[in-house]
Structure formats: C-alpha cells, structure tokens
Amino acid sequence: MDAQIKEQVDQGTMLPLMEEFYTIQGEGFHTGTAAYFIRVGGCDVGCHWCDVKESWNPDTHPPTDIKSIVDHAASYSNTIVITGGEPLTWNMQPLTSALKDRNLQVHIETSGAYPLTGTWDWICLSPKKIKMPLPEIYKEAHELKVIVYNKHDLAFAKAESQKVSSNCQLFLQPEWSVQEKMIPLITDFVMENPEWRVSLQTHKYLNIP
C-alpha cells in the first residue's frame, strides 16, 4: 500500500472493503428487515468460532473510496449496516457522515473493542470476552447481542447487561455450530429472565447472505 492510500485509510476516507450486499437482516432487533450491508476488513479480536475469518486481514481487501461505497449503498436501501471484521478498527466518521448526508439510517455491528467513531442511528454491541468493549460504548448501545457458545456465556451476558442503559434491547444468540445444544439453555434462561430475547441467524435458514 503506497503512502497516499495508507493516509486515506488511516483517515477513513478509504476503507478495506471486503464485500457489500443488499439482503434481509438476519439477526437481532431488526431481523426480517431489508438492509444494505457494508463489510469492512480488519479484526484482531480473534473469535475462534467466527464465520467470517476471511475478514480479519485488512491487507487482503482493496482500499476503496468511501464515495463509491456510499453511492452503491444509497442506490439500494435506506438502512445501511456497517459490519466486519471489526469496523471500529477504522475511523468511521467520514463514512457515516457521507451516508447521513444522503438521509440514510446507519447501523453498526461491533465488539466495542475500539473507540466509538461515527454517527449512528443504531449500535449493536456484541461483546467478546477475549477483547472486551471499551467502557464508554456500553451506554451508547441500543442493542446488546451476546453470542452463546457455552453455558458460561449466559453468566457473561448477565454481567454485560448490567453495563448498558435500561433502554438497551437484550439478545442471546446461539453460535451456529453448537446451537442444538445451546438453544435449550437459552430458552430456559429467557423464560427465567424475560428482559432478554432470543436471536437466531435466520439468514442461514433462509440461505441468503
């Protein structure tokens, strides 16, 4: 990467774009709604069960001018979801400002492991034990989505829920490879703790991106 491009990436006017696609939101609060997804490369959180490990290395994804990203997004949907990888690896302010200039609703899916940049209509915080969220993001989160890989993640979820605002929507989502084992634990937990809701990766059942 030459110095000029690297500077633009560091500033957030170019981003390592892995993929962009229009689909149905499959998880969490907005399940079932249409949205345009922008998947940004780069993540060092390193979840062993991650289903997009190809997003981790930003060098394998082309630095892309945010103007072209915004133009594509605006032609498809009013709701734009920025995901990764870990999008907060990069400065999200230039991208979100450009999207907001087009009167678009801008959402993020993040582990919260890096400083919160950007202007957001919806923040889905999905904390990971191996690299915890920074303290300041908890009160900004509209949605807390905890991935449940084992029963200990239920205790982790409960502890994390004490850090978010009272208006934050709470979701437990079984990790795909172990969902048959985890769903009974999750359903029992939600019935005992009705402030929580179940999230499933419905896009995988629908066989869509």
From TrEMBL:
<feature type="binding site">
    <location>
        <position position="85"/>
    </location>
    <ligand>
        <name>S-adenosyl-L-methionine</name>
    </ligand>
</feature>
<comment type="function">
    <text>Catalyzes the complex heterocyclic radical-mediated conversion of 6-carboxy-5,6,7,8-tetrahydropterin (CPH4) to 7-carboxy-7-deazaguanine (CDG), a step common to the biosynthetic pathways of all 7-deazapurine-containing compounds.</text>
</comment>
<dbReference type="InterPro" id="IPR024924">
    <property type="entry name" value="7-CO-7-deazaguanine_synth-like"/>
</dbReference>
<feature type="domain" description="Radical SAM core">
    <location>
        <begin position="30"/>
        <end position="209"/>
    </location>
</feature>
<comment type="pathway">
    <text>Purine metabolism; 7-cyano-7-deazaguanine biosynthesis.</text>
</comment>
<feature type="binding site">
    <location>
        <begin position="126"/>
        <end position="128"/>
    </location>
    <ligand>
        <name>S-adenosyl-L-methionine</name>
    </ligand>
</feature>
<feature type="binding site">
    <location>
        <begin position="49"/>
        <end position="51"/>
    </location>
    <ligand>
        <name>S-adenosyl-L-methionine</name>
    </ligand>
</feature>
<feature type="binding site">
    <location>
        <position position="209"/>
    </location>
    <ligand>
        <name>substrate</name>
    </ligand>
</feature>
<comment type="subunit">
    <text>Homodimer.</text>
</comment>
<dbReference type="Pfam" id="PF04055">
    <property type="entry name" value="Radical_SAM"/>
</dbReference>
<dbReference type="GO" id="GO:0000287">
    <property type="term" value="F:magnesium ion binding"/>
</dbReference>
<dbReference type="InterPro" id="IPR007197">
    <property type="entry name" value="rSAM"/>
</dbReference>
<comment type="similarity">
    <text>Belongs to the radical SAM superfamily. 7-carboxy-7-deazaguanine synthase family.</text>
</comment>
<dbReference type="InterPro" id="IPR013785">
    <property type="entry name" value="Aldolase_TIM"/>
</dbReference>
<keyword id="KW-0408">Iron</keyword>
<feature type="binding site">
    <location>
        <begin position="24"/>
        <end position="26"/>
    </location>
    <ligand>
        <name>substrate</name>
    </ligand>
</feature>
<keyword id="KW-0671">Queuosine biosynthesis</keyword>
<dbReference type="GO" id="GO:0051539">
    <property type="term" value="F:4 iron, 4 sulfur cluster binding"/>
</dbReference>
<keyword id="KW-0004">4Fe-4S</keyword>
<keyword id="KW-0411">Iron-sulfur</keyword>
<dbReference type="GO" id="GO:1904047">
    <property type="term" value="F:S-adenosyl-L-methionine binding"/>
</dbReference>
<feature type="binding site">
    <location>
        <position position="39"/>
    </location>
    <ligand>
        <name>substrate</name>
    </ligand>
</feature>
<keyword id="KW-0949">S-adenosyl-L-methionine</keyword>
<dbReference type="GO" id="GO:0016840">
    <property type="term" value="F:carbon-nitrogen lyase activity"/>
</dbReference>
<feature type="binding site">
    <location>
        <position position="43"/>
    </location>
    <ligand>
        <name>[4Fe-4S] cluster</name>
    </ligand>
</feature>
<dbReference type="InterPro" id="IPR058240">
    <property type="entry name" value="rSAM_sf"/>
</dbReference>
<keyword id="KW-0479">Metal-binding</keyword>
<protein>
    <recommendedName>
        <fullName>7-carboxy-7-deazaguanine synthase</fullName>
        <ecNumber>4.3.99.3</ecNumber>
    </recommendedName>
</protein>
<keyword id="KW-0460">Magnesium</keyword>
<feature type="binding site">
    <location>
        <position position="83"/>
    </location>
    <ligand>
        <name>substrate</name>
    </ligand>
</feature>
<keyword id="KW-0456">Lyase</keyword>
<dbReference type="GO" id="GO:0008616">
    <property type="term" value="P:tRNA queuosine(34) biosynthetic process"/>
</dbReference>
<feature type="binding site">
    <location>
        <position position="47"/>
    </location>
    <ligand>
        <name>[4Fe-4S] cluster</name>
    </ligand>
</feature>
<feature type="binding site">
    <location>
        <position position="50"/>
    </location>
    <ligand>
        <name>[4Fe-4S] cluster</name>
    </ligand>
</feature>
